[in-house]
Design goal:
Strand order of the largest sheet: 11-10-9-8-14-6-15-18-17
Shape: globular
Structural class: alpha/beta
Radius of gyration: 22 Å
Number of helices: 12
Largest sheet: 9 strands, mixed
Distance between the termini: 25 Å
Oligomer: single chain
Helix content: 25-40%
């Protein structure tokens, strides 16, 4: 199962709206087939592994990180494929919350006389499939919030200078994290201040994440590097319902961007609405890179699943721009608490990774 989980990691960020599943077929200690969800051929992990194994799949044990599907989608049901190939045993890490599956895949395997073991590696599988599970159960993708800050929590000087807070090693890690998410999200303030491209660079990326800007009125400078790089990867804009001008909308549509809408609550674009809009388009994993106002709104609405903080060894003082905007907290017990899962040195910077408790 550890092998299957490692295969599943390879497809993160590349196969949405599917989950990235890993499958290993073994005859005793010998691996005869393996695979992960394939965005090019639209094959699920089980089908990839079965095609690789051929006749060697008969009598084998299949280790799968997610319950094999039991419905006809873009491919035939994987449960039926495992039965037809003569697999003798299936070890499943996590069951599938998709109502089209939800135990039916396992039931179909058992009805065919296949031995099924459940729950092997379930904790790691649940973490790996967290984005897909979130969309299936809540309608929104999982969110990783990344903050690159000084030791006193600043992301820019008082004049707005922010390149670069962290060093080259930390920035490369950010590109690797972008690669494992379906989309990179920033607020309109960050888009205006930094004019970013939000692409994955120097990682050999075969598929770029969707670049998303949440801007209530689409009040972004024109021209800009996002619009100029649409050929490199999709650009989506989430606007407040009815707030953007027809001219700005037409400008972005002509450039090739997709426009989505989210409700406006108390004069601000609703963070839950942003994520619902992205989830409805099939995104399962979103990597948010700020700025401070968007970070605060997501934290305040309890929408952060993973928090990644990269800390540089210098201070900018109180006049610097804070990494997180006002949260309106008056007591410590009102703050959302996260569980620390990783501390890593990245050159002269420190990475702390935290998960929702």
């Amino acid at each position: 199962m550890a092998h299957a989980l490692s295969l599943g990691m390879r497809g993160l960020g590349a196969v949405w709206p599917w989950p990235s599943v890993g499958c290993v077929l073994a005859q005793g200690d010998r691996v005869v087939g393996r695979g992960t969800s394939d965005p090019k051929t639209v094959r699920h992990a089980e089908r990839v592994a079965l095609d690789q194994a051929g006749e060697a799949a008969r009598g084998s044990t299949a280790y799968v990180t997610l319950e094999p599907c039991a419905h006809q989608g873009r491919t035939p049901p994987c449960a039926d494929a495992l039965v037809a190939a003569g697999v003798a045993r299936v070890v499943v890490a996590a069951t599938d919350p998709n109502p089209l599956v939800a135990g039916q895949g396992i039931a179909r395997l058992r009805a065919a006389g296949i031995t099924v073991d459940e729950g092997v590696g379930v904790a790691e599988a649940a973490r790996q499939h967290r984005g897909f599970f979130s969309v299936m159960t809540t309608g929104r993708p999982m969110v990783t919030l990344k903050l690159a800050m000084t030791v006193d929590g600043r992301i820019a000087t008082a004049t707005g200078e922010s390149r670069w807070i962290t060093g080259a090693v930390a920035r490369r890690r950010v590109h690797a994290m972008r690669l494992q998410h379906d989309a990179v999200l920033v607020g309109g303030g960050t888009a205006r201040a930094d004019d970013p491209t939000l692409t994955v660079r120097d990682m050999g990326a075969a598929r770029q994440p969707v670049r998303v800007v949440a801007s209530r009125r689409l009040s972004l400078p024109w021209p800009n590097r996002l619009a100029g790089s649409i050929d490199a990867g999709p650009v989506w804009l989430v606007q407040g319902a009815g707030d953007a001008s027809a001219g700005d909308q037409a400008l972005w549509r002509k450039a090739g961007a997709k426009l989505l809408e989210a409700p406006v609550v108390d004069g601000q674009i609703d963070p839950a609405g942003i994520l619902k809009a992205l989830g409805s388009e099939g995104l399962t994993r979103v990597f948010c890179e700020g700025g401070g106002a968007l970070a605060a709104s997501l934290l305040g609405a309890d929408l952060i699943d993973e928090l990644v903080v990269m800390t540089a060894g210098f201070a900018l003082g109180a006049e610097g721009q804070p990494g997180i905007g006002a949260l309106g907290l008056s007591r410590l017990d009102e703050a959302q608490r996260f569980a620390l899962v990783e501390t890593t040195a990245l050159g002269n910077d420190i990475l702390h990774r935290w998960e929702r408790r």
